[in-house]
Specification:
With 355 residues, the chain is mainly beta. It contains two helices and 24 strands.
Length: 355
């Protein structure tokens, strides 16, 4: 073998090694494209939530986290433009965000946005649509836990019971495997028009493989779903009075790496689809909401390639919103500091139902 041939072989080996070590983006040539992409946040987009204006749905808002030690809670309109006078800056690594409607404060029903502030171990809570603070500087959670990682807040989901009680279900970077990873808090007026949180239960199994971040609640059916990353999606009752038995474990196979963001498209109060992010494949896997053989048999229906890259968090609204989103809107985080807005009919194609 001459010297020139050796150089060519050696160069080819280096290229091959480099490709093996460098994360590759999934092929998006046939991916569904968003209708709008938001203006970028400053640091690191992570999780969105959709607030529906009860008077005029065309004036609804998208709330998104900017995950950094000097991060923020960004507010966007339905074309992805930042609403600067509503955006909150200076939060200590806000991670996930969710919405609840009609919390009674000072005898008035108030819609709220709740985000997890990881570096302070607190929930930060703001009124909607004006984004005024309601938490007296933050509501502490996971109190009494030993070790910084056990209080390092990540996921959040809101549950409204049939009685109108509003709960926050919080997740963290790591926790025990014994069924107490998630903590559920009842949110109430503290007597001054601000919010207090009362711990109602600890629940949730954990594989120990990575972390639990994405949590979603199905209010109508009364279930909580969460992604035990690199293991599967777990299902529990949302009502603490119904106990802590795990009802289902699904989405265990076919993921490139992490199973992540969860969102639920509702075709009726009891039917629809559960979308789970196959993060590194840039696609969402779609499962039956109502179950196939029984209500806890959430079988895979299809996978949808999207234009988001490494999508962590997502949210969905299943009803007509405005002229752009006539059958609902799906919002997903992308790792280029943006959130992408999709029309549900574009994702549904010919296989899935639309409202």
């Amino acid at each position: 073998m001459n010297k020139y041939t050796q150089i060519i072989i050696f160069s080819a080996m280096l290229i091959s090694m480099n490709m093996a070590c460098t994360p590759q983006k999934a092929d998006t040539t046939d991916a569904v494209k968003p209708l709008y992409t938001t203006e970028p946040v400053q640091f690191d987009s992570d999780d969105p939530a959709i607030w529906i204006n009860p008077i005029d749905s065309s004036k609804s808002l998208i709330i998104g986290t900017d995950k950094d030690e000097n991060g923020g809670l960004y507010v966007f309109d339905l074309k992805g433009k930042i609403i600067k006078n509503k955006t909150i800056k200076g939060l200590k690594r806000p991670n996930n965000v969710d919405i609840a409607y009609g919390l009674v404060l000072a005898s008035k029903k108030t819609d709220i946005a709740v985000t997890t502030e990881r570096m302070t171990h607190k929930l930060r809570i703001y009124s909607l649509p004006d984004m005024k603070p309601l938490d007296n500087g933050g509501v502490p959670v996971y109190e009494g836990e030993k070790g910084e990682m056990y209080r390092d807040l990540m996921g959040i989901a809101m549950y409204t019971s049939p009685k109108g009680e509003i709960y926050a279900i919080a997740g963290r970077k790591t926790g025990p495997k014994d069924g107490s990873y998630l903590w559920q808090y009842l949110l109430e007026d503290d007597g001054t028009g601000h919010i207090r949180a009362t711990l109602k239960r600890k629940f949730g199994n954990y594989s120990g493989k990575k972390e639990i971040e994405s949590i979603a609640v199905d209010n109508e059916m009364g279930y909580i779903y969460y992604s035990d990353e690199q293991f599967g999606v777990r299902k529990y009752y949302a009502d603490p009075a119904k106990g802590n038995k795990e009802l289902a474990l699904f989405a265990k196979e076919g993921f490139t790496e992490d199973n992540e963001g969860i969102s639920i498209y509702k075709t009726t109060d009891t039917t629809g689809y559960i979308l789970v992010s196959d993060q590194s494949a840039n696609q969402f896997k779609v499962y039956s909401r109502e179950g196939v053989k029984n209500k806890n048999d959430h079988q895979l229906i299809t996978s949808i390639k999207v234009s988001t890259n490494q999508s962590d968090g997502s949210d969905i609204y299943s009803k007509p919103l405005n002229g752009d989103f006539k059958h609902g809107i799906f919002v997903a985080m992308s790792d280029n500091k943006t959130f992408q807005y999709y029309r549900w009919e574009d994702l549904a194609g010919k296989l899935l139902k639309v409202n």
